[in-house]
Amino acid sequence: MGMLDGRVAICTGAARGVGAEVAKLMAQEGAKIVVVDPGVGGGGEGGDTRPAQATADEIKSAGGEAVANFGSVAKFDDCLQMVQQARDTFGGLHIVFNAAGMLRDKMFHNMFPEDWQAVIDVHLTGHFNVNRAAINLFREQNYGRMILVSSTSGLLGNVGQVNYGSAKMAIVAMARIIAMENQSKGITANVICPSADTRMTRSVPTPKDPAAAALREERLRRSRADAIAPLCVFLASEQASYVNGQVFHQRAGELSLYSHMRPVRMVHRNGGWTPETIAEVAMPSLQSGFTSLDSRGVHAGLPME
Fold first, then answer.
1. CATH architecture of 8-258
2. Domain limits of the chain?
3. Which of 55, 137, 177, 237 is the most exposed place for a label (fewest CB within 10 A)?
């Protein structure tokens, strides 16, 4: 008996990397998979049906059930068709895993509107489209699992990724609100922030500093894409009914839970504030709670279980 026996999943971005590994492990655990990927390049260019079909064929060769879909998550009609394909082919839908992605990294002052929009369309609007296409079915059947994919680029920031990071932070809010609105309907929406050695992460420029470059390479070497899949399978399972609206980060064997935004310090002044008292009193009092712009080593020193 697999953890996902009898379930049907849509896995986007499932031709390569984390998406493919999640789709394959879900299939091993008994789920029937709609493998979604238009086969575009890392920047969203082109298109090729072979990668998604290859993942579907690999699942079937291993004894699982899968079908390929070459639609774009950026198009709502395509996402409606994905849901319909799942129902027509496998008789239902219970899980949506959102791994479709692309990068167009540039410094903010060099970024063109089309670089911004292309990334927002795939990451943020893509998450909306696929999950929105599935939500009414999930509500009707009082069951559904949504696994959304964010990034530390959104949670912590990363130079050259204002488009990607903005989309990824918004995805956290999306999952939180979906979870709030649908918790009484047996639906969960959780976020994973995977650190893995994939085509997309390899496209990020290597740091010029030799020590930073060596650290990045070592982290990538240890961060196999298949290490992310077990968490996704669990979150997609019936056993994860108590996990909802949460944000997880995973790199290899390291699994972290992120907190949601909460005030860390507060000051109060009777009668309100003036610009001068903010400068003289408020900011000096709040300064010790400022967040560093250096996100390196952010997981160092965390309590380990």
1. 3-Layer(aba) Sandwich (3.40)
2. 8-258
3. 177
- Single out the residue of 145, 136, 139 nearest to residue 188, CA to CA: 145
| Predicted confidence (pLDDT) per residue in 179-232, tens digit | 999 999 999 999 999 986 555 555 556 667 777 666 656 665 655 889 999 999
**Strands 8-12 and 254-258, how do they pair?**
unpaired
User: 143, 164, 242, 258: which one is catalytic?
Assistant: 164
Q: What angle do CA 69, 75, 78 make, to 5 degrees?
A: 35
Widest Cα–Cα separation across the chain: 71
Distance CA(245)–CA(176), nearest Å, equals 5
Query: What tens digit of pLDDT does each residue of 24-61 get?
Result: 999 999 999 999 999 886 666 667 899 999 999 999 99
Catalytic annotation present for 164 = yes
Phi, psi of 127 (to 5 degrees): -60, -45
**Are the CB atoms for 169 and 150 separated by under 8 Å?**
yes
- Tell me how far apart the alpha carbons of residues 151 and 88 are, in angstroms, rounded to a whole number: 33
What does the alpha-carbon distance between residue 151 and residue 146 come to, in Å, rounded to a whole number?
16
For 101, the 3-state DSSP assignment is: coil
Amino acid, single-letter form, for residue 47: G
**Measured distance CA(149)–CA(124) in Å, rounded:** 10
